[in-house]
Amino acid sequence: MANKLLRISPLDSVAVAIQPVAKGETLSVGGVTVTALEDIPAGHKIALKDIREGEPVIKYGYQIGAAKHEIRQGEHVHTDNLHTLLSEQAAYTYHPEIAEGFKEKAAKLADSYKGKGPSIKAYVRSDGRIGIRNELWIVPTVGCVNRIGMKLVDWAEKNLKVDGVHIWSHPYGCSQLGEDHQATRTILADLVHHPNAGGVLVLSLGCENNTPASFRELVGKVDESRVKFLVCQDVDDELATGKRLLGEIAGVMAKDQRQEVPMSRLTVGFKCGGSDGLSGITANALVGRFSDRLTASGGTSILSEVPEMFGAETLLMNRCITPEVFEKCVKMINDFKNYFTRYGQTIYENPSPGNKEGGISTLEDKSLGCTQKGGAGTVVDVLDMGETVKVKGLNLLNGPGNDMVATTLLSAAGAHIVLFTTGRGTPFGGVVPTLKIASNTALAEKKPHWIDFNAGQLVESEKTPAAVDEDFYRLVLDTASGRPAKNEEHSYEEIAIFKDGVTL
């Protein structure tokens, strides 16, 4: 590696340490020579110039906060000398000329990929959608039957030949009221229809608020040979009945075969968790370039984690394809701010202890890095929780930053795969294959059983960025065609449903 420091934009007043920098080391970056006045951990920021008290600190070419007091060139820039510039209220204005510029760039990129998109091998469902797995799912309508479902999964894994068998356990479906109850039902119905499932057993108790009859009505039309319903209170032996129904579904699934389909039919969700100071530089930027390539090829990307847009939301708003999409984006942002204030919480106190330890100092710092996952594509639609993708291209999805909840919402929206970037590591996996992308090489080497791809190569190896991008692109396509993600290899697969309401 040529340098321990990286200056992301020529406008930046700070550089990021790619490797630890010792006090007294003199380094050059972006035409600036700086001597470290203290130790700078990897992922953390060093001042490239003297910064006056109250002066904005610039990273990614944008403000990430202001100096609490004078910062000398060479000092560590972090939470003790940097504060947010964000406030609870913000006014948003649509700039059609900026949006038009993004549309023109997107159109040129699409032209460059016309007729060049590769194919993947997937299962084509009867409704025309594709699935990249042919799994047998058990969807409980209420938490009371989770253990029954687990027993059925144990039996099915030993006796049925399918890509995988899963129960999406949760504690809800009863004693919820109003919109909270409906949100649970909507997510569960989305899972019943997910194309990665070749078959589904809907497992109910019988007396829950999410009544079997009302839920079946919500689910609507299904292929009855692949989706079956079991009400435990209505049968003498729920395990025997469940085994029979699962066997019938698996018999139909056994005829399914992968076939070649264009990459344009793929939908990919983006998530980050346990970020560090390199996340926005390596892993998130890598995913952003993938998103641009996917959408240019006619595919679909979904970006969520609304609290981690705060501070960078205007950058996304300026990419909205129409004023109507812009207004939906503004509503999504303001509704989530209101959710914070409704519970008396500070909107802009977001970076977690792990984030801060990794070098992220303010919410602007985190958000500017987080939104890199959306690349430079045009925002074509904004979805509420539980809504499914309708428009190809880059979609924004209402949802929290919580790893499990956000990944569940991305899957419910129609994502076939979730690309999960991390600077600190996590074994977590969701409903769909969850590829873990490390922001740094140390993490990738320490947790090879968690991490699918090392984006740290972008700054920590001699490999060209184009070569790293191509390797990652191929990994995603191979995963779509059946290669198991690390979370699948280790059976790290679960859901979590957003909760905001009264429990009886």
Structural description of this entry:
The mean pLDDT is 93. Strand 12, helix 2 and strand 13 form a beta-alpha-beta unit. It is built from 15 helices and 23 strands. The termini are far apart. It is globular, with a radius of gyration of 24 Å. By secondary structure, the chain is of the alpha/beta class. A seven-stranded parallel β-sheet has the order 19-20-18-17-21-22-23, with helices on both faces. Strands 1-2-5-8 form a four-stranded antiparallel β-sheet, with no helix packed on it. It has a four-stranded parallel β-sheet with strand order 13-12-14-15, with helices on both faces. Helix 1 packs across helix 6 and helix 3 crosses helix 11. The protein folds into three domains: 79 residues, Archaeosine Trna-guanine Transglycosylase, Chain: A, domain 4, CATH 2.30.130; 119 residues, Ribose 5-phosphate Isomerase B, Chain: A; 204 residues.
Radius of gyration: 24 Å
Shape, principal axes of CA atoms: globular
CA-to-CA gap between the ends?
Answer: 59 Å
| Unreliable stretches covering 5 or more consecutive residues | none
**Count the strands?**
23
Mean pLDDT: 93
Range of strand content: 15-25%
The total domain count is: 3
Strand order of the largest sheet: 19-20-18-17-21-22-23
**How many DSSP H or I helices?**
15
Structural class: alpha/beta
Sheet bearing the most strands, described?
A: 7 strands, parallel
